[in-house]
Design goal:
There is one protein chain. The protein has 507 residues and is of the alpha+beta class. It is built from 20 helices and twelve strands. The strands form three sheets. Strands 4, 5, 6, 7, 8 and 12 form a six-stranded antiparallel sheet that branches. Strands 2-1-3-9 form a four-stranded antiparallel sheet. A hairpin with a 3-residue loop joins strand 6 and strand 7. Helix 18 crosses helix 19. The termini are far apart.
Length: 507
Amino acid sequence: MSAIKYKPSFEEYLEFEIRNNLSHSICNLNRKKYGFPLLEDNKKTKVKNKKDVTKEYNITKEDTELMGSIFNKIFDTDRECFIRLRCAATNTIYAYNVQDLKDGKKLFNILNSKKFTREDFFYSLATYKTMLNGEEDNIFSMHVIECDIDYIDKRIRRFKGKKPIEVFEILQAEEFGRSIPIPNVVEIGRQLKLFFKIECVGATKPSRNLVKRVNKVFAQRLADYGSDSTRLTDSGRITGSINSKSNDKVEVFFIADAPKYKLSELRDNWLDSLPEWYPGFLEKKSKRKIVRFIPSGKDIFYTINMGRIQDFYRIANYFGKDFDGRRFLCFQVRNHAKLAGIADDEAEQMMKEFNNNLAKPLVWRVIERDTRNVNKNQYLYKDITILNHLGLDREDVQKIGLQELKYMTDEEKAEKKKDWDREYRYKKFRNTEGLTKTEVRRRNEFIMIARLEFSGLSINKIAEEIGKAPSTIKEKIKKKYKNITYTEIKQGVKDGIFDDLRIEQLA
């Protein structure tokens, strides 16, 4: 009788396949043996035409082309500066040269890098000096003024349920060209952003303040739409990216008839004029160095600055034609004239006379243009700074015969200040006798003790009379102090030096 072979059920066999991780071919051999359904062939079919294969990108080629147009339109600069790309989903930030982002091929590769995803993908609206950080101090140039229309987050009732494009159409009908200018670029996603293209402006402190002011005024005028002021370091969203809050795809479009704006034009045409009191307020608020003249019969500050100007003449006359510090001295003459309180026109004329007095005068148009900033800001230079810039040492100062400029190093100046402070403290905390208040009290106490001792009282009785412990009295009269000692005071009492000092004064 032959043995009966065991045949597993299909469920048991499936567990066997999974447990042993069998290959595709082995699985089919076993299934054929037991009469189970065979696995389908999982070999990939070869694609003859690669053009028919479509790959899924972060940002499509069409969106990349549009993003390239935006970068070329907004960032109108040929300078070496950087735009920061940030992906909130991957928590990554990278800075790229602005010219690379204007190149279509490079931009496509950058946007589809593994560093980024489609979700919450941003670009900086300003360019930066370096790749290091996105702080305001690192901004190189500004190109747009942004208005963020947060009508959903601000829960504006009249726009409840409206799509961003519908809100844009209301803005277009009611606000553009009336309360605010026409924006150049519009970003639509979960909500709405308006970008006003301004001609490239460097990020100086005045220009940054003006951009902030324009942004604040526009936001106030669109407050009913949920707008609020933004920062210079804010970002726009990459076209074709996804807003993770609502899964809306970001779309961007241009408004053809919107002009490119100058920052000064926006200020003049769209902002209210400053109140009359503001320029005075701004001047007081300014951190620039303001000269405060010494309130005395003789204006010392005027004398110092005019004396320095005379020294500049002595230096120029001493070196004659062999002198390469003409530009610096012309600037210093005009600067010190302003420091002395002289009017702008007169200070300019003083520099002109100084320049004409040089053996080789500078081109007046150039030197006047390069030094006119002293009309707004004056600069307080140390003597040693001026002399070092001109390459003059201590011997040169003596040879030239400079009167106001002194060759004094920082160490020498610190030592002189220390001596002055020591003398000042001595006068401040000591009386006409050169004693401090503590020393005066100690002397008076010693006089009282000496008088009581000469009257025949013991130390214990003296201590009881004064109201102090005998041990304290003994310790004080034996201790040697710097200026006051009991032995000297006792001798003075004996000689009658302190006879005129009344007892009431000793308490």
